[in-house]
Automatic annotation (TrEMBL):
This is Serine hydrolase domain-containing protein. It comes from Saccharopolyspora rosea. It holds the Pfam family DUF7586. One of its GO terms (molecular function) is hydrolase activity. It comes from the Bacteria. InterPro entries: AmpC-like, Beta-lactam-related, Beta-lactam/transpept-like, DUF7586. Its EC number is 3.-.-.-. Residues 21-324 form the Beta-lactamase-related domain.
Length: 453
């Protein structure tokens, strides 16, 4: 398959793919890498109906479905139809979690059970939405789980019904109209459309397979129903990384990538935002989702900072290692690290901002303020210890924080009578040109530096 990588890199990636498929006995496995919006490598091992899988072969993507449903919820939020703080009862009344809010359900912190009541939903025909919602009673709530991470497939069944009721159409039709068609994801469907893989379980002690069922989950479909292809998932990786087209604002997707729940441990490496899974790996912050349904496994990760992504899809119930995708990213970074573009001076810098740049002090701590190429201001600690944020200008001469501790906070520029910047007022914190400048309005006053007694 086409690639823009060096032959040695292609071989290293192919070997990692081949080892994964062979050692874990995966009937078919396709994987690839995306960089700067383009697929730079993709290959497959094993066969689907006697042929190698292609980038147009459908696999079931399982819980990756949740991220697409979350986009529908966030579109409703951005339109003002809902607020993430709304209790569920405002829109889907009658459940035991009616007082829990939509944001909690999106981030798996509502306390709702992992699975719905009844038979194993992934392997049995689903039920109608009204019946599903009516069964979410007191038994569906797990004690102590609220305000902590507790993964809930049931919760995303509820969110699919929320979308259906507010849009007046089945959630998957809304998804098709509002997300899949605008993004060009024409091979992502609720039911399989040829060419597609068949799902298998592989016997643990013999090289034989068991066909897995692919039932219509109906009310639970928003938790894991969708089928898709490598090409469509490559577009989805770009979306999660910020290339959102007209579907959502990039800052809304960035909001979805903020941790809302953490899969806790001695050191947290996995978390969950608003319908998006999060992973930390070797200084990377990855966002996307894994997916599993009987007979299928899939994962997509985007690294928004590096404009890189990775995808795999397989038709096996179990076996693909959790390190597979990150190993592919590591091979790319180690063998073909980015070569920076040549630096050149810019001709669009706002020269009136130059007097703001340079060193500032929060108390005795040195900070630096610089102008970014996109016209934003970047305030960061000189020695890396402290709070850093970027700021966007407002029409009234103030600036608004975009990220970090100061996200949403207002930065005001204090000036002398001749317009010279004298201090920064960042939501009551005063930054001065020298440590505790006595001429700046530092709360509590400044008595002057002196030798130790």
């Amino acid at each position: 398959m086409s690639t823009s990588l060096l032959p040695s890199t292609q071989r290293a990636l192919l070997r990692r793919l081949a080892v994964e498929q062979h050692d874990n006995r995966v009937p078919s496995l396709i994987a690839g890498l995306v960089r700067d919006g383009e697929t730079i490598w993709v290959d497959s091992r094993g066969q689907v109906a006697g042929q190698p899988a292609t980038t147009d072969t459908q696999y079931r993507i399982g819980s990756i479905t949740k991220s697409l449903v979350a986009v529908l919820v966030m579109r409703l939020r951005d339109e003002g139809r809902i607020d993430l703080a709304d209790p569920l009862d405002d829109h889907v009344p009658g459940t035991s979690i009616g007082k829990r809010n939509i944001g909690e359900i999106l981030s798996h912190s509502s306390g709702l059970s992992a699975e719905p009541d009844g038979a194993w939903w992934e392997r049995t025909p689903g039920e109608a939405a009204d019946d599903f919602v009516s069964k979410i009673d007191g038994r569906a709530v797990r004690p102590g789980a609220r305000h902590s991470f507790h993964y809930s497939n049931t919760g995303f069944g509820v969110l699919g019904e929320l979308v259906s009721r507010l849009r007046g159409a089945p959630w998957h039709q809304v998804l098709q109209r509002e997300v899949l068609e605008p993004l060009g994801m024409r091979r992502t469907t609720v039911s399989p459309v040829a060419p597609h893989a068949e799902g298998f379980a592989v016997h643990p002690w013999a090289d034989v397979v068991l066909p897995e069922p692919a039932e219509d989950a109906r009310a639970m479909a928003p938790a894991g129903q969708l089928w898709s292809t490598f090409d469509d998932m490559a577009r989805w990786v770009r979306f999660v990384g910020g290339d959102t087209g007209d579907v959502l604002r990039p800052d809304t997707v960035a909001e979805m990538r903020v941790p809302g729940g953490v899969d806790d441990g001695d050191e947290w490496k996995m978390g969950y935002g608003l319908g998006i899974q999060l992973v930390r790996h070797r200084r990377r912050r990855l966002a996307g989702h894994s997916g599993s349904m009987p007979g299928f496994l899939a994962t997509v990760w985007a690294d928004p900072a590096d404009h890189t992504g990775v995808i795999f899809m397989a038709n096996t119930t179990a076996g693909v290692s959790s390190a597979f995708t990150t190993d592919l990213l590591d091979i790319l970074r180690e063998r073909e690290p980015r070569i920076p573009e040549p630096w050149t001076p810019r001709n669009d810098v706002d020269m009136d901002l130059l007097p703001l740049t340079g060193q500032w002090y929060w108390g005795p701590t040195p900070y630096v303020l610089r102008i970014l190429p996109d016209g934003l201001l970047d305030l960061f600690p000189w020695q890396g210890r402290g709070r850093a944020s970027r700021f966007r200008p407002n029409s009234d001469g103030t600036w608004i924080g975009l990220d970090g501790y100061y996200a949403g906070e207002v930065l005001r520029i204090g000036r002398s009578s001749d317009g010279t910047p004298t201090h920064l007022d960042l939501n009551t914190f005063i930054f001065t040109r020298t440590p505790y400048d006595p001429d700046a309005p530092v709360p509590g006053g400044v008595d002057g530096w002196r030798p130790a007694p």
